[in-house]
Amino acid sequence: MKEPTILLDHGSGGLASQELISEVFVKHLGNPVLNDMEDSAVLAAQSGRLAFTTDSYVVDPLFFPGGDIGCLAVHGTINDLAMRGARPICLSLGFILEEGFALAELTRIVSSISAATRACEVPIVTGDTKVVPRGKADKVFINTSGIGVIDETIELSAGKVRPGDTIIVSGSIGDHGITIMTRRAGLSLGGDLHSDTMPLHRLTAHVLAAVPGAVHAMRDPTRGGVATTLNEIAARAGATIVLEDELLPIRAEVRAACEILGLEPLYLANEGKCLAAVAGDQADAVVEAMRATTEGKEARIIGRVEAGSARVVINTPIGGSRIVTALHGEPLPRIC
Amino acid sequence: MKEPTILLDHGSGGLASQELISEVFVKHLGNPVLNDMEDSAVLAAQSGRLAFTTDSYVVDPLFFPGGDIGCLAVHGTINDLAMRGARPICLSLGFILEEGFALAELTRIVSSISAATRACEVPIVTGDTKVVPRGKADKVFINTSGIGVIDETIELSAGKVRPGDTIIVSGSIGDHGITIMTRRAGLSLGGDLHSDTMPLHRLTAHVLAAVPGAVHAMRDPTRGGVATTLNEIAARAGATIVLEDELLPIRAEVRAACEILGLEPLYLANEGKCLAAVAGDQADAVVEAMRATTEGKEARIIGRVEAGSARVVINTPIGGSRIVTALHGEPLPRIC
Question: Which residue among B125, B137, B331 sits closest to A52, beta carbon to beta carbon?
């Protein structure tokens, strides 16, 4: 018997589309708002400013140690909301499917999305599915957009970062990027390489409540890694960010894999970490608050903001220093 | 000199990504919220329920008579908000680009998005761009998600449709679907076939204000066409929708092309039309209100809702009648 696959019909808007929606999407993701099945979801009125974000996910491979494209699409968009200090309230879910994609794999991805949304307590409230002919896409691409609500007292922006601020990272760096790259290269390097994909909205909510006003900006260093994200913050702040190489939390397996492949961990994507620029005199309190959360147990200070030109400098253990530019060249396609 | 194209680097999150963002996206779509360039957009607090919707656009060809994938992506998502009676306030924009796609074509699409958002007065406030290797996508796919605000008195849902309601369409049917299909088939059938892609939020706002409470549900009959959309409404309402064949507004060119290709106009996609189920005694007032708008000049009554099983029936001019099912089989891939 042939394995059931996605047919062009599943994207027609007709009966086959409705079957796919009810037997896969609603079955796994159903909730009162999604089940409404109207042209758009209707949500209760919200008090507070709204945060709105979108991300498409094209990661290859679809399944990798530590996660898959499904949970990644949930976490990534939730994290973009969390970085502005927003409380995520709902997500949308758009699929672009390739004709011939195995229905079993789609179901596995939707189950992963379902588990992630339940764990995050953020529902999918509206969705869309398109199907393109064989060879016109690669299996499955996912878009998630999300809405969050920002409490009145919270105002995070790279524009608020200034000399005297301390730079904190919520945990180890490079895990997601190196995992995808070694998998794609078919390398088995030993050690426990796995993606760090993880939602950060509970960490950010806890920190913002525990140390009010301390955090000036937060960013999750995804594509382009810590180096590129800090360069963006330095550019917005018009100041120099100085990192201490020996303070960077890099797992031994990640460091070893980077050495073998000739990669710089600072440019590797992360999918469950945040960088925070915080008032210098409250940095220890912020680290402590992060460490009180499951997601931030390994949080630590990695650098500071100084007056100077907009750039990122790293001090090496042997007493030298070098400039760390934003990523250019060396594309790492389909990392998320 | 080689024509500039999209490189994998443009999706890396590094310098090339930033250049593409500033030189194409921000240049054409810039506004204070988008220019913020943080992980998510921050919007003012809104009073009223929120509408939220998402749609991916994979239409082939990218450019067609009457529009292109860019304006289609703006109009389609605005229309999904409008169908719930929402006032659209902002859109997100996610691109999946194929390596090697001509930068000039991307710029043409972004210009079209820019023109559409300005005409609609609905800004793009957040975005994302991914690039996949050559052969892993077909040129460009676009996701737009959108947020709208619904006034307190408005409550539209197919669940409110009941026997005695009148079915109204805002204009001619089948224009978008037949245009895409004939273009893709390389047919030149003569006559002025062009897509009806058009935003409907002004039409819906005018009708809802002019005849308060009259409209029970609205839907835009995109994929699957009028037949499929009315079947969905009939299913939700648990009632029979009866159409009069001779009342269906179908342009002569569309009717001729359908005859040549053996297609049923009721199954063809529309991208600038809405169906409304309205209280029978206010149907004429709703038609009049629609006709007072640019978008609804050709609005007319096409049928009614009757007690009976959930189905759609069409009365033919010679006195017979037939059941019109939802679309099944006959996939029309990449129509939007």
Answer: B125
Helical ranges in chain A per DSSP H: 15-20, 27-29, 69-82, 103-120, 175-184, 201-210, 225-237, 252-261, 283-291
Is A293:A211 a contact under the CB 8 Å cutoff?
Answer: no
Q: What is the ipTM of this complex?
A: 0.96
Candidates B145, B327, B333; nearest CB to A8? B333
Residues of A in contact with B228 (CB under 8 A): 13-14
The dihedral built from the CA positions of residue B73, B77, B80 and B86, taken in this order, carries a sign that is negative
pLDDT digits (tens, 9 = 90+) for A151-174: 999 999 999 999 999 999 999 999
Cβ–Cβ gap B54/A94 under 8 Å: yes
Among A39, A48, A132, select the one facing B219 at the smallest CB separation.
A39
Which residues of chain B make contact with A131, given a CB cutoff of 8 A? 333
Which stretches within B83-126 are classed as H helix? 103-120
Q: Identify the CATH number of the domain in which residue B291 sits.
A: 3.90.650.10
Both tokens assigned to B198: 């058009």
Per-residue pLDDT for B330 more than 70? no
CA distance B294 to B272: 12
Mean pLDDT over B266-288 rounds to: 97
Do both A59 and A182 map to the same domain? Answer: no
**Which of A22, A31, A43, A54 to mutate to probe the B interface, most B CBs <10 Å?**
A54
Q: How far apart are CA A1 and CA A7, in angstroms?
A: 16
> Do A92 and A148 meet the contact criterion of CB atoms below 8 Å apart?
no
Helices (H), B168-282: 175-184, 201-210, 225-237, 252-261
Helix, coil or strand: residue B30? coil
**CATH number of the domain within which B69 lies:** 3.30.1330.10
CA-wise closest residue to B227 among B285, B279, B302: B302
pLDDT tens digits for A212-251? 999 999 999 999 999 999 999 999 999 999 999 999 999 9
> For residue A3, is it within any domain?
no
Q: Would you say A137 and B141 are in contact if contact means Cβ atoms under 8 Å apart?
A: yes
Alpha carbon A10 to chain centroid distance?
29
- B15 sits in which H/E element: helix B15-20
Asked if residue A184 and residue A100 are part of one domain, the reply reads no
Q: Which of A38, A52, A79 sits opposite B41 (nearest CB)?
A: A52
Distance from CA of A128 to the nearest CA of B (A): 6
Residues A123 and A184 placed together within one structural domain of the fold: no
Among chain B residues, CA nearest to A133: B333
Decide if A166 is inside a domain.
yes
